[in-house]
Amino acid sequence: MTVVGNPRSWSCQWLPILILLLGTGHGPGVEGVTHYKAGDPVILYVNKVGPYHNPQETYHYYQLPVCCPEKIRHKSLSLGEVLDGDRMAESLYEIRFRENVEKRILCHMQLSSAQVEQLRQAIEELYYFEFVVDDLPIRGFVGYMEESGFLPHSHKIGLWTHLDFHLEFHGDRIIFANVSVRDVKPHSLDGLRPDEFLGLTHTYSVRWSETSVERRSDRRRGDDGGFFPRTLEIHWLSIINSMVLVFLLVGFVAVILMRVLRNDLARYNLDEETTSAGSGDDFDQGDNGWKIIHTDVFRF
């Protein structure tokens, strides 16, 4: 005799597992790590940019005037990546497993004054970028801003035109990825005339090194690796705005209720004085205002 389980209980048991699979984009027992051979291409995806102090505000990386392929090919994303605001697309960076690259040209660009101003605003708002290599996030800043002194005040803005990628591998797997501009001088965006074009040459370097670490552990997607600040930021302006709105609404409701009740009480007092002074019957007087509810409260 075959016993068939309750379909409802079966769905309740497997529903959390299905939600977990949709959110992560991987099946059970799959780490999402790709195995490479020496010389195999490693795809670097550009993802998003946004202000550093507001990580929830993000835009596509190619919305900035940067090196972009003629035909943008986007990566198919899982449900969890879509909910996280990812916008991954293939880049022009050519990286091969365990092959170092020394200052390779990425592209040449001629930027108009409007494009330069767009980059200046992004750098002033401290925009960061995020790349993805083999499911590993790489984050860095779009440019460099320097402010010094009050009198005289100097305001310098520079764009990083060279990126130095550092990747660590163990066997045939990539364990760690990072980007650095430590030994790079930023390209100045100051002193450009409105009708002048700015010529830029973007370059990059790739350095591979072997590590004894066998697992990525904390280097998985979704971990900022200490890039974003972890201090608790209290939005006082939003709190004050909410309190003012609450006080205004309570005040408006109280004023309206007081005016209605005061008019009703004045009418009732006038009716009582008129009734007591005259010889009419009390039952002939009809109730008005909020006292009408007594007909519902004392209904048989």
UniProtKB/TrEMBL annotation:
The keyword Repressor does not apply. It is a multi-pass membrane protein. Pfam families: EMP70 (PF02990). It is found in: Cytoplasmic vesicle, Autophagosome membrane; Lysosome membrane. GO terms for cellular component: autophagosome membrane; lysosomal membrane. Residues 1-32 form the signal peptide. The chain crosses the membrane at residues 236-258. InterPro entries: EMP70. Its main location: membrane. It comes from the Eukaryota. Keywords: Membrane, Signal, Transmembrane, Transmembrane helix. Belongs to the nonaspanin (TM9SF) (TC 9.A.2) family. Plays an essential role in autophagy. This is Transmembrane 9 superfamily member. It comes from Homo sapiens (Human). The lineage of its organism: Eukaryota, Metazoa, Chordata, Craniata, Vertebrata.
